[in-house]
Design a protein that fits this description.
Porin; 2 helices; mainly beta; 8 strands; about 170 residues; about 10% helix
Length: about 170
């Protein structure tokens, strides 16, 4: 599904003609993770994202999250592969630009030798602080994640901070 969505986006010439820029972001993330059955654990990790701006306000973002931790002495690992729209507010030349997003995709969870895939829906928001023309600090103080695991839905909360780099800027 992720590949199909990215191919559709890149092959649509009308979107490319209106595009503004392509940003790559990487950084640290934290999650207070619901492991189901009333169990929670704190996970730390990294994330990487590619954001394709359709306009100053609307973008499509594809993201990979990777979390690590432990629960009752057993290693816990979660990987998320999500894609979705992001809305950015504020002027094009503003130093601070608030944003919010909705992303969906696959979560791969592994613990105690068991691996499970489930649908993951992430909703979050934050602010991007422009450092210069190419770099920005991106802070997401709150992200909610709903995962439809086989054992039932889980509800996790996280935060992330990263550096965003504009690798391509098109027509305005």
């Amino acid at each position: 599904m992720l590949k199909l969505a990215l191919c559709g986006l890149l092959l649509t010439s009308s979107l490319l003609a209106q595009s503004r820029q392509l940003d790559l972001t990487a950084g640290y993330n934290y999650q207070n993770s619901d492991q189901g059955q009333g169990l929670r654990t704190n996970l730390n990790g990294w994330f990487g994202a590619a954001q394709f701006d359709l306009s100053h306000t609307l973008a499509i973002t594809a993201e990979v999250d990777n979390y690590f931790g432990a629960l009752h002495g057993e290693g816990v690992r979660q990987q998320n592969f999500v894609i979705g729209p992001q809305l950015t507010f504020g002027g094009e030349n503003a130093k601070l630009n608030p944003y919010c997003y909705l992303q969906g995709g696959d979560q791969r969870s592994s613990s105690a030798g068991m691996v499970e895939h489930a649908f993951n829906l992430q909703v979050g928001g934050g602010v991007q602080w422009k450092l210069n023309e190419k770099l920005a600090l991106q802070v997401t103080p709150l992200e909610y994640s709903l995962v439809t695991a086989a054992s039932g839905p889980t509800h996790s909360f996280g935060s992330k901070v990263g550096i965003s780099w504009t690798v391509w800027k098109g027509r305005s």
